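> Could you send the Iron-sulfur cluster carrier protein prediction when you get a chance?

Sure thing. Input:
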Amino acid sequence: MSITEHELEIKLEEVEDPDIGEDIVSLGLVNDVTIDDETARISLAFNAPYAPSEMAIGNQVRDVIEDAGLEPDLRAHVGEEHGFDDEVLPKVRNVIAVSSGKGGVGKTTVAANLAAGLEKRGAMVGLLDADIHGPNVPQILPPESDPGVTPNEDIVPPRSDGVRIISMGMMMEDDDDPAILRGPMVNKFMMKFLEGVEWGRLDYLIVDLPPGTGDATLNLLQSMPVTGSVVVTTPQEMALDDTRKGIQMFNKHDTPVFGVVENMSSFICPSCGDQHGLFGTGGADTIVDKYDVPLLGEIPIHPDFGADGSEGALVKDDDSEVQRHLEDLVGEIADRIGEANRRTVSENITQEPANKLPTETKD
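Output:
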C-alpha cells in the first residue's frame, strides 16, 4: 500500500522531542518530506551532530519510515531561515564557550577533553585557545605540526588527535616565554584567531575562554555567535563565588548557560577505588539550585588524567573510570547543544519548508 508525503508527515507527528516534549512536526523540525520510488527522504532541522538525543530521534524517524514500507534517507540542515547567524564563522555549526570564574579549576582540561570526546564520536571539531596569557592547550593536545598559512595569510590550524587547534602557545619561541601583552594587543590576537584562521567545516568550535569576566572574554562574546557556554568550577567556596559571577555575565549577554561542570569533585583512590571529597562535596549543587542550570557532570581527580602533563592530559584509556565520566559529560553537553538549537528552530518556525541545500549532511 503506497503512502503519500502528507500522510508520512502526519505519521512523523508520533515522534516526540524528549527534551522539549512536543512532536517534531509541530516544532518545525521537519524541513521537507519527499518520497521517490521506495525511498523517503527527510530533511530534519538538526544541528548537533552525534548528540545522543538527536541520534535517538533520528532512529525513531527511521522506524516510522520503515513501518510505512519505505527506505529512510535522513539529512540534517539548518540555516538563516531557522534563526541561525551564518555571517560570522559561516562554516562552523556550533561555538561552545568553556569558561571559569577563576584560574586553576581545570577549565582547559575540560575544554580539551570535550573537543577530543566530540571528535571521537565522529564530529569535526576545532579548539580555540582564547586564554592568551595562559595558553595551555598545546600541553594537553600537543599539535602534530606547526600552523600553516594560506595564500591569503590566514592561519591553518594543526591537528592533535584529530582536533584542529590554535593557541598563542604555538606562537612562542620557548614554552616558558610569557605573553606580555596589554589589552589592545590581546584583542588583536583574539580577532586574528577568530577571523584569520581557516578552520574549514566544523560541527563544533570549542573556545577555551580566559578565566574571569574581563575585557577579552566580553569582546569574544560580542564578536562570536556563541551557541552556549559551559562553566567549570571546583567544590571550594572561593571557586563557586567566582562561578556565580561568571554565570551572571553570560546571563547579561544573553548567552545560554548549558550547565556547570564540577571538576576535582572527589579523589578516586587507584588502589581501592574509594572516593574522597578532598575539597568538600556538593558545592556545585548550590549553583545549580540558585541559577536553575543543570549539573552537567562531576569529574574526579585521578592519575589517569596524566597530571604531569608530559603526554597531555587527555584520558585515552577506554577502561578508565574517569573516561566514563568524561564520555557521559560529552554526551550531556552535546544533548544540551542540540536542545538549544532545536528550541531556536521552533521559535523561528516558518510556514514553508526549507529548501534542501547541496551542503546537507547525512544524519
